[in-house]
Every structure is written in structure tokens, then in C-alpha cells.
Amino acid sequence: MKKIILMTIACLFIFSTQAFAHTGLESSDPAQGTTVTQSLDEITLTYMTKIEETSSFELINASNESIDITNLTVNDNVMTGNVEGNLENGAYKIVWKIVGIDGHPIEGEVDFVLNAPITEETVDETATETAEETAVTETEVTEEEPAAEETASAESEEDKGSNTGLIIGIVIVLAAAIFFMTRRKSK
Questions:
Q1: pTM
Q2: Which segments within the chain are labelled E, that is strand?
């Protein structure tokens, strides 16, 4: 009986992290909080486990405008996409949404700053874009994304919930083990 209890406790500790684990972002290019000093052509996000094909991301500039991403591909735990055109220097964020192998949707952000050398081509494109923006008189209505704090808070609450379940499970198993051990000794 002792062997069964000890094996149960050992299995609980060995496999518990896998049962309650969610995938997360392992690394990104560009990385969180970095300053990119050359033109940005491709974004690569690498996750801790395999992700579903329905996963995606978008690139948002400091004005909260979405930048076109092409050739978005998911290969096991790596998601890549190509940036269309030359980006202006400034702050950007990559907003990603994935479905992990465990079926749970997860989202997050990667913030970075672009400070690449300005070329003649970039200057020409910027002048053309500015002229086009000036000509546009209609106001665009954009849907607001949830704030980063709300997303982080929701992820934190989800993690607390899974940890609470783990702790309760451990306490129950330990209580049962102690009960059976004391009962067996009293016989």
C-alpha cells in the first residue's frame, strides 16, 4: 500500500507541470524591448510548444495603426511573417494570438523600437504616404484592442487558477496518504 501511495505522489509531482502547462512565447525576432537598427523585413515568433495553424499576429505602430504582414506561416512552434514596405522609425508592438497544442487560446505582445538608417527610398515613401494621408478627409473608426494590462491580468489570473488546482490536488493526495498510513499502523 505504501508503494502505491508513494508512486501516486511521485507521479503527481513529475507530471503535474505538464498537465497544467500552457504554451508561451519562448523568443522573438525582434526581441521584447530591443531597438532594431536595420530595416525590418521579417518577424519570427517561437513558442514553447507546437501551435495551431489558426494562430496569427499583427504589427501595430505608435499611432495604433496595423502594418500589413504577408506570407504568415506556422511551422510547428514557429510563426513567421514578412513586413510590407519600409517602416518608419519609432515604437512598434507585435500583437500575437495563438492556440496552443492544449487547445487554450493565448495572446500577448512584443514591444520594440525601430531606429534604422534612413535611405532615399524610405524618404520618398514617407513623403508619398504623408501626401496621401493629407488628402484623406474621412475619419476611420478602429476597434480598440484590450489593454496590455488587461491581457496580462487575465493570463495571471488563469495561471493562479491552475496553480491553485495543483496545490489542492497535492494537499488531497498527501492527506489521503497520511490517513492510510496512520490507519494501517493502528491495525
A1: 0.55
A2: 25-29, 35-36, 42-47, 56-61, 66-67, 69-75, 78-83, 90-99, 105-114
